[in-house]
């Protein structure tokens, strides 16, 4: 929702997220504790949370934070289990996304980890521009290794490799995830952006490389508004489900609840 200009009413957001909570996902990125000036669509995250039936769901709610103030606010809520922080391999994108340098962001991340420890929250770190960047900033797999080492030392509970622009090929995904899985001793996932016609190949590449944590968004809506003028959508959740069924991967999900959520996604996103 974050890249959509027309404000989605709080009640609609909450109803949609409650539908997602009934599906049985492991983790649900439901909102952001960030500046409303930067991301106006997320200004009502606390109000949305108050309307969520998280107590009746096994799904962990994750909130995105960009600084210690946002982390402190998010950590006060019992219903939020995970804090997500975007850390970029690209210096340019880190400045665009959080108005901080990479080194400043690492210091902020250390503070956020302490907040997580104090409040018993999990820290999920997204390595943005993990497959390269469009700005001409230096990039190499060894840089991703170095970032991962720092994140492990800082106490990240989950690390997710993010293809923020949707530019990674299946071979890129296979190569980086396979190498990182050997290198990293904490749970590793992927957060891929893609055109719909390329999604299955990218999902297959990640799965065959050993990835068992994949981020998706219903209907593939979304993208990163800080990355480019034209949004490249997220991997569609239903495409991941389609892949899992075709490859006999067990899913502990309520498919009827998923169908209901998909219908709501059309209602919300296509009208806003």
Topology summary:
Layout: H1 10-21, E1 27-33, H2 45-50, E2 60-65, H3 68-75, E3 80-88, H4 91-98, H5 102-119, E4 122-128, H6 141-154, E5 158-163, H7 170-183, E6 188-192, H8 199-208, H9 237-246, H10 255-269
Textual characterization of the structure:
It is a single chain. Strand 2, helix 3 (68-75) and strand 3 (80-88) form a beta-alpha-beta unit. The protein has a single domain (10-269), classed as TIM Barrel (Alpha-Beta Barrel), CATH 3.20.20.70. It contains ten helices and six strands. A six-stranded parallel sheet has the order 1-2-3-4-5-6. With 272 residues, the chain is an alpha/beta fold. Helix 1 packs antiparallel against helix 10 (255-269). The mean pLDDT is 92. It has helices at residues 10-21, 45-50, 68-75, 91-98, 102-119, 141-154, 170-183, 199-208, 237-246, 255-269, and strands spanning 27-33, 60-65, 80-88, 122-128, 158-163, 188-192. 42% of the residues lie in helices and 15% in strands. The longest helix is centred in the middle third of the chain and has 18 residues, at 102-119. The radius of gyration is 17 Å and the shape is globular.
Classify the secondary structure makeup into a structural class.
alpha/beta
Q: Helices and strands, in N-to-C order? A: HEHEHEHHEHEHEHHH
The H-level CATH homologous superfamily, spelled out, is Aldolase class I
Q: Quick one: biggest sheet?
A: 6 strands, parallel
Report the span from N to C terminus.
9 Å
Task: Describe the structure in brief.
Helix content is 42%, strand content 15%. It has helices at 10-21, 45-50, 68-75, 91-98, 102-119, 141-154, 170-183, 199-208, 237-246, 255-269, and strands at residues 27-33, 60-65, 80-88, 122-128, 158-163, 188-192.
């Amino acid at each position: 929702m974050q890249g959509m200009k027309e404000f989605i009413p709080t009640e609609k957001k909450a109803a949609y997220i409650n539908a997602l909570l009934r599906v049985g996902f492991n983790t649900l990125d439901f909102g952001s504790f960030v500046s409303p000036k930067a991301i106006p669509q997320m200004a009502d995250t606390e109000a949305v949370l108050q309307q969520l039936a998280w107590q009746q769901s096994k799904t962990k709610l994750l909130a995105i934070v960009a600084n210690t103030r946002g982390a402190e606010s998010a950590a006060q809520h019992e219903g939020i289990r995970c804090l997500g922080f975007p850390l970029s391999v690209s210096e340019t994108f880190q400045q665009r996304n959080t108005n901080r340098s990479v080194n400043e962001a690492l210091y902020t991340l250390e503070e956020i980890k302490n907040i997580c420890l104090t409040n018993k929250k999990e820290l999920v770190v997204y390595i943005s521009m993990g497959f390269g960047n469009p700005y001409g900033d230096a990039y190499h797999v060894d840089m991703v290794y170095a970032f991962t080492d720092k994140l492990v030392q800082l106490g990240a509970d989950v690390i997710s490799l993010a293809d923020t622009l949707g530019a990674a090929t299946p071979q890129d995904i296979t190569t980086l995830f396979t190498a990182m899985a050997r290198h990293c001793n904490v749970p590793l996932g992927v957060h891929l952006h893609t055109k719909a016609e390329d999604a299955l190949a990218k999902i297959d590449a990640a799965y065959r490389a050993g990835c068992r944590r994949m981020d998706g968004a219903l209907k593939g809506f979304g993208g990163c508004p800080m990355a480019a003028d034209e949004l490249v959508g997220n991997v569609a959740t239903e495409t991941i489900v389609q892949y899992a069924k075709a490859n006999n991967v067990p899913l502990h999900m309520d498919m009827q609840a998923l169908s209901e959520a998909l219908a709501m996604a059309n209602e919300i996103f296509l009208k806003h």
